[in-house]
Amino acid sequence: MTWFVLLAATLGVVSVAWLTRALWRPSTTLAMTLAVFVFAVAGLGYVGIGSPAHLALVPGAAQPPASAAAQTPTAEQVVAMVDQLAERMKSQPDNAEGWLMLGRSYVALGKHADAVAAYRKASALRPSDANLLADFAYALAMANQRNLQGEPLKLIDRALAIDAVQPKALALAGTAAFDRRDYALAVKYWEKLAQTQPPDSAFGRQVQPSIAEARRLGGMSAPVAAPTAPVAAASSAQVSGTVTLAAALKGKVSPNDTVFVFARAVDGPRMPLAILRKQVKDLPLNFTLDDSMAMSPQATLSAFPRVVVGARISKQGVAMPQAGDLQGITMPAAVGARGLKVEINEEIGR
After folding, report:
1. DSSP result, 28-95
2. Is the model more confident about 82 or about 137?
3. Of 249, 241, 255, 253, which is closest to residue 345 (Cα–Cα)?
4. 284 preceded by cis ω (within 30°)?
5. Whole-number Cα distances in Å, 110 to 43, 105, 106, 121, 318
6. How far apart are CA 245 and CA 97, in angstroms?
7. In whole numbers, what is the pLDDT of the chain averaged over residues?
């Protein structure tokens, strides 16, 4: 079971938000919204092996041993673990949880056609699992050139018939309606989705621009906002500064290489609390990271007092660190710090 938990934790480290960037309309905000749910099921415990606390990836959970947390598996190691799971499933064809884990693993790696095959086996064994059906619909749409119509939409409808407030199904249903230019229905689904989240959460804030865009395109007036209490210290839950590239490394990059800027808790989960994606041509870069850039509503800058801020250049454009990437990390700083200086000055060893 140890390697199973390691795989789930590793998938939590993978920044799935960036694997789905710019894939879903109507906005990059909604892309992040959908990615949050992909991340949540892959890394926070909807994997058939325990609760979020079991994986120690949420605030207040028991943390893994320091030696394990310090080791960030490479992309090759993650692929090997997924291959190991796929091989194991050949002798366990009736293990629904194993197929589910395999499907979510393939999604995290961007192998959507393989994910569809795994989800199809899982759904045959657990046809009334709304979470599984929503994940299946997402993978199938991605495998079908990001098209939610047809079988993906039927899966979404099945999921909502089982659980009318299944968050990922609501998000996808709204996107499908938006694609058909049924903006009123998109608003209906997304507003219902927003109601499932605390209004001051990062997730709750992320879906609002998509609702506003659907209202605008559908010629619908904005609803009258109810009085709300001010969010205390919201502006302080951020870090800002500048990212530069060391002169000695400029010959190793291209203008279109991807730059990830991220903040990670000093004492907490290994996954980023906030992440920003740019390109080398944007350097030097002034940045601000805040709760709106969180990958999960349960892991935000406002939940931790101290962070390290890093920047990494990836030629492959993937969020997991790989040999040959260039990076730079700050010393620990308090959340709310300004004027941080991140110099990308080292190459990750091969």
Report:
1. HHHHHHHHHHHHHHHHSSTTSS--HHHHT-STTSPPPPHHHHT----HHHHHHHHHHHHHHHTT-TT-
2. 137
3. 249
4. yes
5. 15, 9, 6, 19, 10
6. 45
7. 76
Indicate whether this model's pTM tops 0.90.
Answer: no
Q: Identify the bridge partners of residue 310 per DSSP, sorted by sequence position.
A: 262, 329
User: Where exactly are the structural domains of the chain?
Assistant: 2-217, 234-347
Instruction: Transcribe 119-156 into DSSP letters.
Output: HHHHHHH-TT-HHHHHHHHHHHHHHTTT--TTHHHHHH
Asked if 328 and 346 count as a contact pair (C-beta separation under 8 A), the reply is yes
- Could you give the percent of the chain with pLDDT greater than 90? 38
Spatial separation of the C-alpha atoms in residues 311 and 284, rounded to whole Å: 12
Exposed e or buried b per residue across 177-213, where buried means at least 16 C-beta atoms within 10 angstroms of its C-beta: bbbeebbebbbbbbbbbbeebeeeebbbbbbebbbbb
* Cβ count within 10 A of residue 149: 12
Render the burial of 35-57: b for 16+ CB within 10 Å, e for the rest. bbbbbbbbbbbbbbbeebebbbb
Q: Does domain 234-347 have CATH number 1.20.1250.20?
A: no
Helix axes 130-143, 112-125, angle to 10 degrees: 150
Lowest mean pLDDT among 137-141, 161-165, 293-297: 293-297
| Residue 230 CB partners (closer than 8 Å, separation 6+) | none
Do the first three CATH levels of 2-217 and 234-347 match, i.e. the same topology?
A: no
Concatenate the DSSP letters of all residues of 150-180 into one string. Answer: THHHHHHHHHHHH-TT-HHHHHHHHHHHHHT
Q: Which of 1, 33, 11 is nearest to 106 (CA)?
A: 11
Write the DSSP string, 269-312. Answer: -SS-SEEEEEEGGG-SEEEEEEGGG-SBTTB-GGG-SEEEEEEE
Amino acid at 5: V
| Contact indicator for 42, 28 with CB cutoff of 8 Å | no
Report the C-alpha gap between 185 and 180 in whole angstroms.
10
Domain 2-217, what architecture?
Alpha Horseshoe (1.25)
